């Protein structure tokens, strides 16, 4: 294992009724002005908005609404939220939604108190957040990104066509509330997309050095098996609490830094997907679904023992009479088959990308991971994108 320092400051409230039981308490130590942030309105249809606002009103909170946060939140939207927060002397932000809402809120929490240009200083290049952002609490309504228990925020700057993320510990939400019942209304498309995002986060960490036996990889294997088991159940029966609760916690576990301990981490597929998103505004999990099998066909020979372990430990593929290389390749194909089975797209054209000429510009704009089993070049990323087309 590599050396590590671990800290996670987010307090988690998990389970049925957790918002009703704990939200008032969780907000009590902050002032009265609450910026209530949410997306395009799903929370108004499924009753979550009414439940949350009723609690805030009972507590005498002054609610300032910040709505219509889009999937793949933009820097422009962040500045809109920051302006609202400053004008209304907001004391605490309450984000109710998925990764897009939570990420936008983290960036707003920084932009509302920083005198600096947070894009230039913190997203465009890694900075050090040595100031206290506004306090943020989140109520999760869709599983996938794991943004609820880390300081990560992925923001798109449309002007320069860059979508990128940073994880600043000071941006960890003060608290995260997760009631799996809130995810019963998530569409099959978003359920599959979020499920694949969870799997992707775990794989991006698992497929990286060191390869020798370690606790983080063991936890990752258990998490991957749980997602592979529970995602099809949630798709078939959206109100299955066991499946939804396992997906919700697996999503958090994948991104709360625990399985990264002692590991390098890759995230090359994410780097490519983020630029696909910057150019096409595609759904995050959909982009990953298209990229992962193709990317892994490119690198698995450079991490054979781990890919062979993935085949046997995660997919239960028999090793009888097979070389390590055969087994590793079968693991990658099992992943590709799973992606097809849960109805995710397998080509960029299905994501609406019709202009092949755009691929070079996208490839050239991608960051290169230093944690991959084999370091990519921009040319190889273009090959991958072309194979995905
Ligand atoms: O906007 P509304 O109307 O609320 O609808 C949303 C949205 O259309 C809907 N939804 C959410 N909860 C629902 C619901 N629909 C019905 N019932 C509910 N209970 O789901 C749709 C997608 O929401 P979104 O927040 O965009 O999805 P997700 O959680 O996948 O977040 C995606 C964003 O997070 C970034 C992605 O790049 C993308 O921008 N990521 C953030 C990460 C992080 N902070 O650590 C890591 C990830 O790798 C990822 O990059
Ligand atoms: Zn992701």
Itemize the secondary structure elements and their pairings.
Elements: E1 11-14, H1 18-27, E2 33-38, H2 42-45, H3 48-58, E3 62-66, H4 75-87, E4 92-97, H5 99-111, H6 118-123, E5 136-140, E6 152-157, E7 162-167, E8 175-178, H7 188-206, H8 215-236, H9 241-255, H10 268-280, H11 284-299, H12 304-314, H13 324-341, H14 358-365, H15 378-388
Parallel strand pairs: 1-8, 2-3, 2-4, 4-5, 5-8
Antiparallel strand pairs: 6-7
Helix pairs in contact: 1-3, 4-5, 7-8, 7-9, 7-11, 8-9, 10-11, 11-13, 11-15, 12-13, 14-15
The chain binds 5,6-dihydroxy-NADP (NZQ) and zinc ion.
Zinc ion (ZN) is lined by residues 145, 197, 200-201, 270, 284.
Structure description:
This protein is of the alpha/beta class and 389 residues long. The protein folds into 2 domains: 11-182, Rossmann fold; 188-388, Dehydroquinate synthase-like - alpha domain (Dehydroquinate synthase-like, alpha domain, Up-down Bundle). It has 15 helices and 8 strands. The chain has a 6-stranded parallel beta sheet with strand order 1-8-5-4-2-3, sandwiched between helices. A hairpin with a 4-residue loop joins strand 6 (152-157) and strand 7. Helix 1 (18-27) packs parallel to helix 3 (48-58) and helix 14 (358-365) crosses helix 15. The longest helix has 22 residues, at 215-236. The model has no long low-confidence stretch (mean pLDDT 97). Bound molecules: 5,6-dihydroxy-NADP and zinc ion (ZN). Zinc ion (ZN) is lined by residues 145, 197, 200-201, 270, 284.
């Amino acid at each position: 294992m590599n050396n590590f320092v671990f800290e996670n400051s987010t307090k988690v409230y998990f389970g049925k009724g957790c918002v009703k039981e704990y939200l008032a308490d969780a907000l009590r130590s902050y002032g009265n002005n609450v910026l209530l942030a949410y997306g395009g309105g799903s929370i108004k249809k499924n009753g979550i908005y009414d439940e949350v606002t009723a609690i805030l009103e009972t507590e005498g909170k002054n609610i300032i609404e910040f709505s219509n946060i889009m999937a793949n939140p933009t820097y422009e939207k962040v500045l809109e939220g920051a302006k609202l927060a400053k004008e209304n002397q907001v004391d605490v932000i309450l984000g109710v939604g998925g990764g897009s809402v939570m990420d936008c809120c983290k960036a707003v929490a920084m932009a509302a108190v920083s005198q600096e240009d947070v894009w230039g200083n913190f997203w465009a290049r890694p900075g050090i957040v040595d100031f206290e952002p506004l306090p943020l609490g989140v109520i999760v309504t869709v599983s996938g990104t794991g943004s609820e228990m880390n300081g990560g925020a992925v923001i798109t700057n449309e002007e320069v066509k860059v979508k990128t993320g940073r994880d600043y510990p000071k941006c960890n939400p003060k608290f995260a509330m997760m009631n799996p019942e809130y995810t019963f209304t998530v569409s099959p498309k978003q359920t599959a997309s979020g499920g694949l995002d969870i799997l992707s986060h775990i794989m991006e960490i698992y497929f990286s050095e060191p390869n020798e036996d370690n606790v983080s990889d063991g936890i990752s294997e258990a998490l991957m098996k749980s997602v592979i088991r529970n995602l099809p159940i949630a798709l078939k029966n959206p109100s299955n609490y066991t499946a939804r609760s396992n997906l919700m916690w697996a999503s958090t576990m994948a991104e709360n830094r625990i399985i990264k301990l002692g590991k390098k981490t890759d995230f090359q597929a994410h780097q490519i997907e983020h630029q696909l998103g910057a150019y096409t505004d595609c759904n995050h999990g959909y982009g990953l679904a298209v990229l992962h099998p193709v990317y892994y066909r490119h690198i698995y020979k450079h991490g054979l023992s781990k890919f062979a372990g993935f085949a046997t430990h995660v997919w239960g593929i028999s090793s009888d009479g097979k070389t390590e290389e055969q087994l590793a390749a079968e693991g990658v194909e099992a992943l590709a088959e799973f992606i097809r089975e849960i109805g995710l797209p397998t080509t960029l054209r299905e994501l609406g990308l019709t202009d092949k000429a755009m691929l070079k510009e996208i490839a050239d704009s991608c960051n290169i991971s230093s944690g991959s089993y084999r370091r990519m070049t921009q040319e190889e990323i273009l090959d991958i994108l072309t194979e995905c087309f």
